[in-house]
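seq as requested:
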Amino acid sequence: MAFDPVTGGYWEVASDGGIFAFNAPFFGSMGGHALNKPIVGIAFDPVTGGYWEVASDGGIFAFNAPFFGSEGGQTLNKPIVGIAADPVTGGYWEVASDGGLFAFHAAFAGSMGGQTLNKPIVGMAVDPATEGYWEVASDGGIFAFNAPFAGSMGGQPLNEPIVGIGV
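struct tokens:
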């Protein structure tokens, strides 16, 4: 899901790439198109008001938003699990389940790629104050990159896994 701060609405994205717009403009979708891998995230472009869809293979689909590149067609260690927009540059990041982060016209502040994780990364969010970002793992572990660390559920018993993070 992505929030549109202009209209106060939002978009939901389905794994087939279909977009459902609620009080937010519809610019198109990958719904009805053949995809190599399922869509796993959406991000709002603060510059154009459009959005990007990202697939688990790293493919990016831009709708009223610029395309700065993608990991689509590349060999990845683990699948992409999320996307976030860089509010400063208008670019975006893709994050993989192993913590690897791929920056496209966005500042790279580090990642958990190449590090041993207790559980896989399931998402990321951008800190609007520092313009850094967090990665979150399914065990609730938070990894902060140029963003404040205020605690996490990592190492704590959970009834069910964490599935995402938001600001």
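The chain has a mean pLDDT of 97.
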